[in-house]
Each structure stands twice: as C-alpha cells, then as structure tokens.
Amino acid sequence: xxxxxxxxxxxxxxxxxxxxxxxxxxxxxxxxxxxxxxxxxxxxxxxxxxxxxxxxxxxxxxxxxxxxxxxxxxxxxxxxxxxxxxxxxxxxxxxxxxxxxxxxxxxxxxxxxxxxxxxxxxxxxxxxxxxxxxxxxxxxxxxxxxxxxxxxxxxxxxxxxxxxxxxxxxxxxxxxxxxxxxxxxxxxxxxxxxxxxxxxxxxxxxxxxxxxxxxxxxxxxxxxxxxxxxxxxxxxxxxxxxxxxxxxxxxxxxxxxxxxxxxxxxxxxxxxxxxxxxxxxxxxxxxxxxxxxxxxxxxxxxxxxxxxxxxxxxxxxxxxxxxxxxxxxxxxxxxxxxxxxxxxxxxxxxxxxxxxxxxxxxxxxxxxxxxxxxxxxxxxxxxxxxxxxxxxxxxxxxxxxxxxxxxxxxxxxxxxxxxxxxxxxxxxxxxxxxxxxxxxxxxxxxxxxxxxxxxxxxxxxxxxxxxxxxxxxxxxxxxxxxxxxxxxxxxxxxxxxxxxx
Length: 501
Ligand code: FAD
Ligand code: 2HG
Ligand code: ZN
Fold this sequence. Notes:
The protein is α+β, with helices and mostly antiparallel strands. It is built from 18 helices and 16 strands.
C-alpha cells in the first residue's frame, strides 16, 4: 500500500509538531534491552533501515516517531515475553498491524518499541458449519477473504487496504467499512480473542461459539481500544456464507434530498438483501478520474454518486428487485443516470472506485481527515457550511462515506500542512458535531489526531471511566501511550511515580 504523495512532503516528527506533549517517564532503551528483546525474536528484530523507517511513519505521512527498535514476534509466547520484559523495565510499546491507521494510532510518538504482528499470520481453524474462523492477529484481510472464498464463506466487512491491514488491527480499531449496514460492526461478529496484557500475562477469551453470558463481555473492551489495553494475538470471528447472488447499482443523483429518498426507498424495497449504501460527491469523482485514472462510468456528471449493493440467496428474485428499484428511481427522476451490474469482475472493478478514494485524495496532497457520524439529514450540510467558513482560503473540501450509518468522511486537502487552516476547520467542526450529538470518530478511532477532542463526543464521566479502565489494564501506561486518552491525562498515565505501583 505504499503510496506516493504528489506534493513534496517530508514528514516532520510528531513530537516536534506537538511540543506540549512530553515524553512519559519511561526508561530509555539501553543496548542490553535491545539485546534481550532481539534474542526473544531471534533474527526478527530491526534496529535500522527502511523497514524500521516505514514502521515509524503512518500511511498518511502526517505522523512520525523515532523508535529505534521494531520486533516481529511469531507466537503469543514471544509477545508475552516481550511485554513481560518491557513491563519490568518500564519501556513503552506500540502494537502495529498493517500500519494503515488514519488517526496516527499505529506509529510511535517518541521512541516506543514497535511490536509488529505481521509474522503471526496463521489460520488456526475454520468450521464450515458454524462459520467460526480462528486465526492469528497478523492475518491480512485479503488472505482471510481468499481463504473463506474457497470455503463458500466471506468476511463480514470490507475496507480499502485489505491487502495490508490485519485482522488484529481491524479489531483494535473496530473498523467499519462498506458492509456495516448488513453485518453490523466488529462487535457483532466477534466470538473471542486472545490478548497479551501489559504485564505479559495471556488472557484467553477464544471461543468458537456465539453465546456466552458469563459476566462482563471482556472481549468487547479490546475492540476500538487501539492497542491501549492489550495486544490481540488471536481472533475468533463468525463469518457469513458468501451470497450466491450479488448485484450493484452505480448511479448519479441530482441532489442530496434525492440521496435520502433513495436511502429510505432502499430500506423498504431492497430490505434484507441490502449490503452497502455508499455515497460520494462530484469533487471526489473528479479526483478519482484524475488521480486513479478511472473514468466516470456514467454518461454524464452528477452532484452525487452512489453505490448500492445487494447480497442474497436467490439470483432471480434479487435481480427482479434491483431492476424494479432502478426503473422506479428513473421514473421518479431521483437519479440522473445509472446502471446495474451483476458480473463479479465488473463489480470488483466498480468497487475499486469506492475503495480507493482515500488513495485518490492522498495523491492530491496532505489530507486532514474527519471521520464523523451525523444524523442522515445533516450528512452533507457539514461540507457545504465548512466550504463557506473556509472561503476564501478554500483548500479542497470533499465528502463521502457510509450513508447508512450516517458516517461521513470529510477531507480537507492541502498542498502542505497548514496549522491555521486546521484550527479554523476544527474550531467550526467539533462544536457543530457536538451540537447534533454526533461522533467525532465513526470508525477510524482517536489515535493521536483526535484524542483531545474526545470530549466533544463523550461525557466527562465517560472519559473518567475510560481512565479507570486504562489504569486497571495497564497501570504503568506502557501500551500505546499518547493515544486515545486525552493529553491532559498523560502526566498520570505515562509519568506515574513507579515506587507507588
Ligand atoms: P494499524 O494501522 O497497524 O493499527 C491501528 C491501531 O490498532 C493502532 O492503534 C495499533 O496500535 C492497534 N493495533 C494494531 N494491531 C493490533 C493488535 N494486534 N493488538 C492490539 N492493537 C493493535 N477504516 C474503516 O473503519 N473503514 C474503512 O472503510 C477504512 N478504509 C481505509 C482505507 C484506506 C486506504 C486506509 C489507508 C485506511 C482505511 N481505514 C478504514 C482505516 C482502518 O482503521 C484501518 O485500515 C484498519 O482497521 C487498521 O488495520 P491495521 O492492521 O493497518 O492496523
Ligand atoms: C473509507 O471509507 C475509509 O474509504 C477512508 O474509511 C476514509 O479517506 C477517508 O477519509
Ligand atoms: Zn470509511
């Protein structure tokens, strides 16, 4: 997934960009630490070179740390040994999956040791009756999709960087993607997890069965925790069967009111077979055309474009439903043009328009991403109003997202990082979201980027409970510090007086 930026951009150190964030009172890595840790993963430690440099920079090329050590364990036992040692020595660590985080969560802030799960990529078991898959955390999403395809099953989610992102990272971010409308969030499909806790102990919550009400649902705490509560080493997931009947509509829509009308109609008319409901604006389409060299598949331009997908069990029945749906939209004038596609290869190609939008935007410049949940009616108002606020500075502001969940990806694209514009955007945006009781992070997480903005979406009591949970799981604060929890808690979470522990 290495993608070049069109602008010349040297990622500054995150610590230099954020001088108010102080390094926690962790030990500094000594040569002895390096030797001991490297011996645990014999031949799989990096102390220099491109692999280490890449692991220090995020996908968006906005955040960069200075970790001197990357470890690549191959087993839960090795992860446990590493964390046990780091805990004793008070060394901070960052768990890393495919490093595709869009919130700066997967890279160090300072010199934290990077623990990459990429070599823990074994599929452990699959039950062809229940659909229960058990695998190691480093399996890429694509490898699991391929494996399941041969079994007649599929993954219950789909996101763009599937060849790179890992199931452990997907769980840790509680990633969303295109099929939440059909299969729910990661919480819906998770059966169990194995997690190595901060002190190196192993919490085995793996099961292949769906129901278990034995007290607190611990596994759910790790979904969306972004590596701040433990390192996920195994995942057990309930996978749905691959639908034998899949269809897609690609349509151009004249107004946002029509987009909403179509959404409501799709819920009634496509009902149980609806599997994706995606929307993007005309500027996004232009950037797809320009930066991915993919021409508009429709014969004319429209202010909005949509991909509506279905997955069912009866081709004739679904075909009829989709044809009737499309012709009614045409009759009602709710679309300007559009077509239905049912051939697997052609649909894969059309999905690439949607799945590679983030790549198209990144090729345009530095992307400041805002990943927000709003009431459906307000989905695009935020774009229009923000464009008004930024005028005449007017960097490129675009919107797209998973409309079914009210999840809009607002991107502000600039030739280079501009703190003044960033402050202007956020000064407008966050109170706007709060007023509507929306979320400032729908699916990408808080990472470094949004941790201080948590208060716009979570009550002070909610943030306080999170602090207590963090201290329970990780009293020394060695797991992915400076992420998720707000910076004003750093002094307690990362600089505690160890003699009191
Ligand atoms: P990383 O980026 O490596 O890590 C993400 C976070 O999880 C970090 O905080 C890290 O410390 C932690 N972590 C990673 N592995 C573990 C582990 N085993 N145990 C504990 N903590 C761990 N997200 C969506 O929700 N929907 C989308 O549609 C979507 N599309 C994307 C498209 C593109 C082009 C890109 C680049 C990203 C997209 N994302 C999307 C962001 C999304 O969060 C990630 O792509 C994915 O879930 C992260 O997986 P990863 O393996 O790369 O994790
Ligand atoms: C998507 O839906 C991802 O494609 C990326 O969540 C969102 O680029 C973004 O802002
Ligand atoms: Zn998304």
